Write a sequence for this structure.
């Protein structure tokens, strides 16, 4: 593998690892606001205890998210210098705005949320939670819009040397691709948050600890989870898919493992793409559905990879195909699980149905896998472009960077992140075991 | 427009060094001034709610850099690949050490993170100084607009690498100046034995910083002739180094006189005047080339398109106004002395 391959691996690894943390932060931020609002309305300390408990989990997540986020912004320059050079005049704006508008608010108000409850009073504390939520969701927006520009560049002009410059601020910041991608990404974050909250609640319920708090968390997690899982598929996933069909037809063909073009295109549930022989092996298909989902009509023609020049195919069709199918499969499974749990909750039987509690407790990795698979789909689907139709990934690397340097840093990140991951898991598990009781009660912290 | 964005970038980097500087500095002196677990918790409680926001200035400055001067950003970050990656790892470790230390009450866990915090802060302060030394001296940028610089060059190599005599002195200055800044901050925010030791450490570090500042200035005149020529040609720059020397003296005296807040504010002035003078003497260069002056990446040839920069200004002005409000509010809400026992850390 050359410097290009290692740089791609490094970016893929560091961004995947990094995004394990913000997805929970953003999802939890919303749920914490709901907890604080309920705490204001309902009697008892339950909701405020929970807001404090999830605030501690949030803080640990936030810390790892922040430190693993810093290398992301700087890797644009270190490993992808020709990309930054060509597009910095456009995407630099949203990267700077993320810091200026979102991170400052988030970090300032997180300090107040974590340390200032007594000083701020209940309403002030809710306001701090709200600002943390707004800050984290705003930072998500700026990053998604940056990615949306790479997927579907709009609002730019190109100068004589090929560099992109900002032509229209509003076109760039309100990229239609970005709006649906953002909605899809944020509902995914809420799913992660609600699955984690439900898993912890299921655990407490199963061992009979903190029954009041567990009941509250279970209700909040399942209700939020059902809403988010539904929105994940419709409308956000549906609209995202139509955008891919319209603007990245080669990507859609690879995601679906379609080589032949034609109308009444079938939707395959699963199969194994054989890229050499250009066919899908062992497909299980639903007739004509892909044409309908992509274009709203059963007769619509879906372009297959055979009609796309070979040098414009996504360069890893197989991984793209499976990433996409894992995302869709898990998304469906998650909706089924939350739908079933919500039904039991409505019937008042969820807390007694231990089998479902077991599943809820163990299912928390699903949204993390689905989110990772979703981003893998987006990023592999965009290939061979780093900016769709404008700059190829192969021409985006740093010109003087050798493979040896990048292998060294890939290994460095692997070791460092492995260590942090283990310590993080251990600390979070301690918090969960300790539960929503006051931290002062925890052996002389 | 280009000069304005150069100034904005310089301003944001200065804000970063002044703000993150005090929490880096607190890390540098951490194990020396804070001896007991209580003291160490106090140090972390003093910077705990603030360090993360301070570090955001680095991210925001990075965003401004790539937006306004993409060519220079691309060249600098790819050319200094390994150096930057090591900085990033240090930043990761340091952030983790601050947040993880308090979570487990075990003496070995805590001293391990204390060491990580102190070592990463120390290394980062040195690297910041080395980085400024490199910018002052210049880079082997060729006609391609890129360069590749080793960390340290072999004796035979054409170019000495990122770490040479000049940048080493700058690195030492970075270490003592930020150490003094951090110790002064602790002198202001803490009391008792910790406060007394912080005052003593700060006074010593201020004296060393003054010596190193003089040495670095003299060495710059020899090693970075273009830079030195700019200083001579721009007499309006002269008050800045004088202010730097005066600020170090005043900060030291104020500490002796028991006026730690005044000492801290002059300490901010010390760092700011030093950085403003450096930026003023560099202008318009962002990355000077040591191969040929015509290869230098400056605020004009490395900048984004003018129309884009104008749009950016409409975004930057309200953003920075809002940030100042947040920061003022944050510092106000955590005013007063920090105490380890009543906080999260």
């Amino acid at each position: 593998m050359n410097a290009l391959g290692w740089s791609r691996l490094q970016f893929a690894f560091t961004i995947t690892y990094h995004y394990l943390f913000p997805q929970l932060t953003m999802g939890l931020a919303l749920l914490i606001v709901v907890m604080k609002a309920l705490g204001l309305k309902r009697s008892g300390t339950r909701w405020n205890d929970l807001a404090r408990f999830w605030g501690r989990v949030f803080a640990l997540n936030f810390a790892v998210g922040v430190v693993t986020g810093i290398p992301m912004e700087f890797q644009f320059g270190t490993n992808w210098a020709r990309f930054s050079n060509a597009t910095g005049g456009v995407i630099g704006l949203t990267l700077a705005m993320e810091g200026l508008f979102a991170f400052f608010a988030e970090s300032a108000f997180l300090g107040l949320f974590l340390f200032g409850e007594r000083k701020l009073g209940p309403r002030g504390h809710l306001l701090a939670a709200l600002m943390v939520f707004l800050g984290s969701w705003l930072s998500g927006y700026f990053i998604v819009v940056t990615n949306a520009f790479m997927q579907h560049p709009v609002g730019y002009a190109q100068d004589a040397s090929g560099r992109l410059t900002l032509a229209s601020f509003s076109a760039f910041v309100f990229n239609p691709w970005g709006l649906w991608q953002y909605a899809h990404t944020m509902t995914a974050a809420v799913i992660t948050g609600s699955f984690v909250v439900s898993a912890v609640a299921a655990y407490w319920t199963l061992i009979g600890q903190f029954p009041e708090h567990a009941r509250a968390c279970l209700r909040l997690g399942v209700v939020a989870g059902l809403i988010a899982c539904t929105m994940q598929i419709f409308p956000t996933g549906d609209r995202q898919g139509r955008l891919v069909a319209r603007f990245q037809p080669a990507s859609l063909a690879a995601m679906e493992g379609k080589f032949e073009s034609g109308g009444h295109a079938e939707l395959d549930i699963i199969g194994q793409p054989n890229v050499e022989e250009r066919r899908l092996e062992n497909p299980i298909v639903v007739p004509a559905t892909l044409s309908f989902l992509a274009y709203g009509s059963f007769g619509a023609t879906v372009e297959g990879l055979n009609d796309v020049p070979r040098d414009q195919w996504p360069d890893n069709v197989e991984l793209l195909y499976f990433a996409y199918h894992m995302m869709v499969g898990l998304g469906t499974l998650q909706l089924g699980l939350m739908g079933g749990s919500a039904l039991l909750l409505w019937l008042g039987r969820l807390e007694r149905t231990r089998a479902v509690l077991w599943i809820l407790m163990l299912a928390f990795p699903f949204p993390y896998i689905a989110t990772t698979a979703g981003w893998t789909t987006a990023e592999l689907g965009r290939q061979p472009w780093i900016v769709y139709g404008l700059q190829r990934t192969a021409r985006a690397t740093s010109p003087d960077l050798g493979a040896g340097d990048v292998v060294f840093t890939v290994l460095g990140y692997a070791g460092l992140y492995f260590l942090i991951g283990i310590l993080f898991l251990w600390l979070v598990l301690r918090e969960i075991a300790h539960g929503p009781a006051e931290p002062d009660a925890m052996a002389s912290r | 427009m280009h000069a304005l964005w150069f100034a904005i970038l310089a301003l944001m980097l200065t804000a970063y060094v002044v703000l993150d500087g005090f929490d880096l500095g607190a890390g540098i002196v951490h194990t020396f001034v804070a001896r007991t677990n209580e003291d160490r918790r106090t140090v972390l409680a003093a910077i705990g709610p603030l360090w993360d926001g301070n570090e955001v200035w680095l991210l925001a400055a990075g965003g401004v850099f790539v937006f306004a001067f993409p060519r220079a950003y691309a060249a600098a970050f790819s050319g200094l690949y390994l150096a930057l990656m090591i900085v990033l790892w240090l930043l990761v470790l340091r952030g983790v050490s601050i947040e993880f230390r308090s979570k487990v009450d075990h003496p070995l866990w805590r001293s391990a993170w204390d060491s990580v915090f102190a070592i990463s802060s120390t290394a980062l302060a040195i690297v910041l100084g080395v980085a400024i030394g490199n910018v002052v001296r210049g880079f082997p940028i060729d006609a391609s607009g890129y360069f590749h610089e080793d960390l340290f060059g072999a004796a035979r190599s054409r170019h000495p690498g990122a770490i040479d005599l000049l940048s080493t002195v700058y690195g030492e200055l970075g270490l003592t100046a930020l150490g003094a800044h951090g110790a002064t901050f602790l002198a202001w925010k803490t009391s008792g034995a910790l406060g007394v030791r912080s005052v003593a450490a700060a006074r010593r570090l201020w004296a060393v910083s003054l010596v190193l500042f003089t040495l670095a200035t003299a060495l710059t005149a020899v090693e970075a002739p273009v830079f030195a020529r700019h200083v001579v040609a721009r007499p309006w720059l002269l008050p800045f180094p004088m202010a730097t020397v005066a600020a170090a003296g005043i900060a030291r005296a104020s500490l002796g006189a028991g006026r730690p807040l005044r000492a801290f504010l002059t300490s901010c002035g010390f760092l700011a005047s030093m950085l403003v003078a450096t930026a003023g003497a560099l202008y318009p260069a962002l990355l000077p080339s040591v191969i040929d002056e015509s290869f230098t990446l400056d605020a004009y040839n490395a900048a984004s398109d003018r129309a884009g920069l104008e749009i950016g200004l409409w975004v930057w002005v309200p953003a920075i106004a809002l940030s100042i409000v947040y920061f003022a509010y944050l510092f106000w809400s955590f005013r007063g002395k920090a105490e380890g026992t009543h906080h999260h850390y």
Observations:
- The longest strand of chain B covers residues 285-287.
- Chain B has a mean pLDDT of 89.
- The beta strands of chain B are 285-287, 297-298.
- The longest helix of chain B spans residues 2-33.
